[in-house]
Write a structure and sequence with these properties.
- This protein is mostly helical.
- The protein has two domains: 3-164, no CATH class; 209-321, no CATH class.
- 43% of the residues lie in helices and 10% in strands.
- The chain contains 13 helices and ten strands.
- The strands form five sheets. Strands 1-2 form a two-stranded antiparallel ribbon. Strands 3-4 form a two-stranded antiparallel ribbon.
- Helix 2 (28-42) crosses helix 3, helix 2 packs antiparallel against helix 7 (134-148) and helix 3 (54-67) crosses helix 10 (190-207).
- The longest helix is centred in the middle third of the chain and has 18 residues, at 190-207.
- The termini are far apart.
Length: 322
C-alpha cells in the first residue's frame, strides 16, 4: 500500500464536487463509489472493468436506500458519467470505455441505453490498485461513509451484515417466496425495472439447475455462467410480471420457438409442438421428439410455471401457430 498515493486520493474523495440542490449537496458520487467498492470486495468486479449490469445498478439502488435520507432521486447514470470530471493531482481518475463504434460525449440518462453503448468504466491504475488491496480499500470505504453518510452509516453496516435490503427483497419477490407476499415491492424507475429484469434472467435458470426444461440440456461454464435462457411465459411488456412462475428455462432455440408460439405447455406440464413446424423429424434434435414429454419442473411448487400464464400462452400465441 502506497501511503502517499492513498492520502492523495483520500483528500480528493472527501472533497468530491457535488451539485447544490434544494435538498442539499447531491449524494450520488459517494454512493456510486461505495457500491463499486462493494462489488470489488465480493469479487464481482475484476480486472479494473466496471460494467453496467444488474449487480452494479442493484447495489447502487440498495445502498442509496440505506444511506440517503434526503429527497434526492436515485439516478445511477448521473454519477457514472460525471465522476469523469473529478481529478486528483490534475489527473482524471474515472474513465468510460464505449463499445466499438459508439461514443459517450454526454450524460446518457437511460440505464438501458448506457448499457448498450458502454463497454465498461475503469479507474486510474493507481486508484484501482488501492481498491484491490483489502486494507486501503477498507480505509477508503470508511472515509466515504464517515464523510458523506455519518447519520446512516450504522444502519448501512447492520443491513449488510444481515443481508437485508433492496436486492434481497427483490429476489424474494421474483422467487415467489412467502415472506415477499407481505412486503410492498415498489418499482418506480427504469433502473428498478433494469435490476428486476436482470435478476429474473439469473434466478429462473438457477431454479431449473441451469437446465432446459424441455430438452434436458444443461450448459454452464466453469466460471458459473449459465447458457440457458430465462423465458417469460406472458411477455413482460404486457404484464411487467418478473416472478419466477412467469418464467421457464429454455435453451436459445427453444426460447425463440416458445416466444413465437411454435411450442407450448398443456395443463399437465406436457410439451406441445405446433403443426406449423417444418423439420427433419428423424434428426436427433427434432422438436417432434419432445411432443407429449413432461417438462422438467423446478424444485418447489412455488417456482412452478403458473397454469394461468401457460393458458394465456396457449390461447394467445400457440393456438395461432398450431
Amino acid at each position: 500500500m502506497n501511503n502517499q498515493v492513498l492520502n492523495s486520493y483520500l483528500q480528493k474523495l472527501t472533497r468530491l464536487n457535488r451539485a447544490n440542490t434544494l435538498y442539499g449537496k447531491a449524494p450520488h458520487k459517494p454512493v456510486l463509489l461505495i457500491s463499486i467498492i462493494e462489488l470489488i470486495e465480493k469479487g464481482l468486479t475484476q480486472n479494473n472493468r466496471v460494467y453496467v449490469n444488474t449487480d452494479l445498478v442493484g447495489t447502487f439502488q440498495e445502498n442509496w436506500r440505506l444511506l440517503v435520507n434526503t429527497l434526492h432521486q436515485p439516478d445511477f447514470t448521473q454519477p457514472f458519467y460525471y465522476l469523469q470530471s473529478e481529478k486528483t493531482g490534475g489527473e482524471q481518475f474515472w474513465f468510460l470505455q464505449p463499445k466499438l463504434g459508439c461514443q459517450i460525449n454526454a450524460h446518457i440518462k437511460s440505464v438501458n441505453k448506457l448499457a448498450e453503448v458502454l463497454d465498461f468504466g475503469y479507474f486510474a491504475e493507481d486508484l484501482y490498485l488501492l481498491l484491490t488491496d483489502p486494507v486501503s480499500r477498507s480505509i477508503i470505504k470508511t472515509v466515504l461513509l464517515d464523510t458523506y453518510f455519518p447519520a446512516t452509516k450504522g444502519n448501512f453496516i447492520e443491513s449488510k451484515v444481515k443481508g437485508d435490503g433492496y436486492i434481497h427483497d427483490l429476489k424474494e419477490y421474483i422467487l415467489n417466496e412467502p415472506e415477499a407476499q407481505y412486503k410492498h415491492i415498489k418499482i418506480e424507475t427504469e433502473e428498478d425495472v433494469f435490476v428486476r429484469g436482470g435478476l429474473f434472467k439469473k434466478l429462473v435458470p438457477k431454479v431449473y439447475d441451469s437446465t432446459c426444461c424441455f430438452s434436458g440440456m444443461r450448459l454452464e461454464s466453469i466460471y458459473g455462467h449459465s447458457y440457458i435462457d430465462a423465458c417469460h411465459i406472458v411477455p413482460f411488456s404486457l404484464t411487467h410480471d418478473d416472478k419466477v412462475n412467469n418464467g421457464i428455462a429454455l435453451c436459445p432455440n427453444l426460447h425463440r420457438a416458445f416466444d413465437r408460439g411454435l411450442v407450448s405447455i398443456d395443463t399437465d406440464y406436457r410439451i406441445l409442438i405446433s403443426q406449423q413446424i417444418t423439420e427433419i423429424e428423424e434428426h436427433p434434435y427434432s422438436l417432434k421428439q419432445l411432443e407429449g414429454r413432461k417438462m422438467r419442473l423446478p424444485f418447489g411448487s412455488r417456482h412452478y410455471p403458473s397454469l394461468e400464464n401457460i393458458k394465456w400462452h396457449r390461447e394467445n400465441l400457440f393456438s395461432i401457430k398450431s
